[in-house]
Amino acid sequence: PFLAPTIRSEGGSFCARRFRPMPLFGVWPAAGGACAGRSGLCSNAGAFILLGLIATVRITRVDASACADTYEAAFSAHGGKVAPKDVGKLYNGWCKKNMRVSSAKSMDELCAPLVKKVQDKMVWVPPDTDVTPEIACESVEKLKERFPEHVAVAEESLKSAVAEESKKSQRLESAKKLKATLDGELREAVGAFGKDLVKRLGERFRGLGAEMLGESAEEAPFQDMVKVMEDAASINARGLETKLLQKMEEAIGTWASKSAKLAAKKAKAAEL
Question: Which residues contact 213 (CB under 8 A, 6 or more apart)?
Fold first, then answer.
């Protein structure tokens, strides 16, 4: 069991200031003297404060070591030092190879939020810095202390990133609304087309059948054949709708991408 320090009486009128091992959640009774009371425990809050400090230091060291080991493995192919812009990509590679989680999500989905945190932290590191595992493991506050001259640059970069993310969200919302509107119009148009196709084919086939076959066109065999073609036309019209909706999603995505690039180009030109 985990052993914690406590103070135990050795007899006499005061507690001998020594450490004796004891289970973390157990107590040792005092041997007697002034410290022996109802509980028999010679309490010493300082000992438990010391224990907490020791435990905190040990946990911190273990966490720091695990973090450093992670980045050492991720950076190994690059001599242990990489540029800030590459840290997220290398961590992502390490994450997808080493994460062991039972989940229906893909490794990309599981690692994405972790990679995002790493990338956000690297904003506080100057771009010409050789990032070591030690630097990669530091908190944002530590990085600010290490690179104070870069803080203003990083803050401005974050402001720009937030503004760009806001524009991206607006474009995405616009694309969703546009797609919903056009999807509705497409379904209505294809639905009307399908009904008209079935009606026109049925009328034309029956008319031509009457001209060419006479009374036999009214019999079941010919009417069944026409019905088969009407059903096929209806099914294919629905298939056409599905394919066009899929193409619509692709087309909207292409439009959104090109629109964003054009907007960025115009914004850059306006700055000149």
Answer: 222
Q: How far apart are CA 114 and CA 109, in angstroms?
A: 10
Encoded amino acid at 107, one letter: M
pLDDT surpassing 50 at residue 59:
no
**Predicted TM-score of the model (pTM):** 0.50
- Contact yes or no for 140/121 (Cβ under 8 A): yes
The H-or-E segment that residue 22 falls in is strand 20-23
pLDDT digits (tens, 9 = 90+) for 196-241: 999 999 999 999 999 999 999 999 999 999 999 999 999 999 999 9
What's the burial of 7, exposed, middle or buried (CB within 10 Å: 0-12/13-18/19+)?
buried
Give the integer Cα–Cα distance in Å for 211 and 221. Answer: 16
Amino acid at 102: S
Question: How many alpha carbons lie under 13 Å from residue 84 in its C-beta half-sphere?
Answer: 15
- Kindly state the tokens that stand for 60: 């911190």
Please calculate the CA angle 151-156-158 and round it to the nearest 5 degrees.
95
